[in-house]
Design goal:
The chain has five helices and two strands; from the N terminus they run ααααββα. The chain has 139 residues and is mostly helical. About 12% of the residues have low confidence.
Length: 139
């Protein structure tokens, strides 16, 4: 959460929210919120969830190593617009690569286990054959 407090500030500013407003949403006073936003106090998981709901982003948005990109529209009605952070796309690509790596590893394990099973079946047949011959000699 290196940039969590900076992300909080960017999101708050880009939505034209005051610290007082966000503090009221989090059920804390403005001074407490200011301390969280400045990085002096830790941001709890509960607060992350509340902020994610407020800004309509995923909670992991606050865990990103990248800061959001803010584009300011200076038309007649000046307002700010948050552009999608590339973090989500990277997370999807990273998740996909991780998933592919896990699948490949599991396929390798399955192949190894199939070979082990085939070897054990062969050994079982050899043991039964040895047992059959041993029993035949004793009769």
């Amino acid at each position: 959460m290196v940039h969590a407090h900076r992300i909080m500030r960017i999101l708050r500013d880009s939505n034209d929210y005051s610290q007082e407003y966000v503090a009221s949403v989090l059920n804390v006073n403005q001074k407490t919120y200011s301390s969280i936003e400045s990085g002096k106090s830790k941001l709890t998981l509960q607060r992350i969830k509340q902020l994610a709901d407020l800004y309509h982003v995923k909670p992991d948005y606050f865990l990103s190593e990248e800061l959001p990109v803010v584009n300011y529209n200076t038309g007649t009605y000046s307002r700010s617009i948050i552009a999608q952070n590339s973090y989500e796309g990277k997370a999807d690509v990273q998740s996909e690569k991780l998933f592919e790596r896990i699948i490949k590893e599991k396929d390798t394990q399955i192949t190894f286990l199939i070979k082990e099973l085939d070897q054990m079946k062969l050994e079982k047949q050899e043991l039964f054959e040895l047992l059959r011959r041993t029993l035949a000699k004793t009769e």
